[in-house]
Structure formats: C-alpha cells, structure tokens
Amino acid sequence: MYKFTFFVPESHLEAVKQAVFATGAGKIGHYDRCCFQLKGEGQFRALEGSHPFLGERGQLETVVEYRVELVCDEQHIRSAVAAMKLAHPYEEPAYDVIRMECF
C-alpha cells in the first residue's frame, strides 16, 4: 500500500480527485473514494522558462490549495499519479508517494 498526497488549487479540487479515484485509488476495505483533505495556502515563484497557470514569472504568489491524502494499492499507484498530473492545472504539481507498512 501507498499513501499518495497531492496539492491542488481549490478551483480544480473535485476534478483532480475524481480523476484519481477513477483509477481505483482511495479504496479502504468496502469503501471507495476515501481521502482526507485540508485547506491551506501554498506559495511559489515561477522561474524563467516556466508557464505558470497562476501568477507571473518572477513574482512570489500565494494561492488557496488543498492537501489531499489517500491510500492506493501497488496495482493502481502509477495510474493514479498519471491521472493526477493530467487533470491538474499546474505545470509541475507538488505530490509525494510513500510506501506504507501494513500490520
């Protein structure tokens, strides 16, 4: 099992979650579409050569984003990450994938 965490602007929260869930991620026992989400504020500065979805190159930007965490089995993790990247508006979405020990 893996824990998959990604950060997404509020405007695309549901679309990105639905894309990830459609791959089979977010299942726990007899439940699906399981996740935890927390609203916060992200910051970034787009550098030369970037094509930012929000803001301007060279300017520090802050944006309301959600941190979304869910579990995913090994069979679906690669397709879940790929789906998140396709549905996400950012050129370089922030995410992590952590292998979990299950007892």
TrEMBL record:
Positions the record marks as coiled coil are none
Q: Which domain of life is it from?
A: Bacteria
Q: What is this protein called?
A: NGG1p interacting factor NIF3
Q: Which organism is it from?
A: Oceanospirillum multiglobuliferum
Q: Which PANTHER family match?
A: NGG1P INTERACTING FACTOR NIF3 (PTHR41774:SF1), PTHR41774
List the lineage, top down: Bacteria, Pseudomonadati, Pseudomonadota, Gammaproteobacteria, Oceanospirillales
Query: Could you tell me which InterPro entries the record lists for this protein?
Result: DUF34/NIF3_sf (IPR036069), N-reg_PII/ATP_PRibTrfase_C (IPR015867)
